[in-house]
Design goal:
2 domains; Nucleotidyltransferase, domain 5; mainly alpha
């Protein structure tokens, strides 16, 4: 029974569980845009809402910040998701520059907030596999 629960939590929940289609944000965006799939739209909206909620709660808990950083597959490659996550964070001083945001895909690094934003928004590419390899090496060899 434990393995069934683990499989549900690790393999069939999140974006896949909500959309009923996939856990790949690129595919969900395509389904939502091309076919108007309501469950894909819901999964995207929930993802962005939860990310925004966590950013807001961390900003409140820390008393502010200098920047919000987007990394990893979705954070590095989806200007649309970054914009949706940031919508509603204007109260914290974060304002997205749409052209800067659109230009930062495919491994590019940079700021996509406006010059007048008091809270900067960055895209920082990461090499997740390298980080995992380094952490594994430290755990095994240290």
């Amino acid at each position: 029974m434990l393995r069934v629960r683990e499989a549900l939590l690790n393999k069939q929940s999140g974006l896949l569980g909500i959309s009923g289609l996939t856990n790949d944000m690129r595919d969900l965006l395509a389904e939502a845009q091309e076919h108007g799939d309501r469950r894909a739209k819901l999964a995207i909206a929930m993802f962005c809402y939860r990310a925004r909620k966590y950013i807001g709660s961390y900003l409140a808990a820390m008393g502010g910040a200098d920047a919000v950083v987007f990394a990893g597959g979705i954070g590095e490659n989806s200007a649309e998701i970054r914009a949706r996550v940031c919508t509603g964070l204007e109260w914290a001083g974060l304002h997205v520059d749409p052209s800067r945001n659109a230009a930062l895909v495919g491994g590019k690094e940079g700021v996509f907030s406006t010059d007048s934003s008091s809270l900067a928004a960055w895209v920082l590419p990461t090499d997740e596999e390298l980080l995992i390899a380094r952490d594994t090496y430290r755990a095994v060899c240290a």
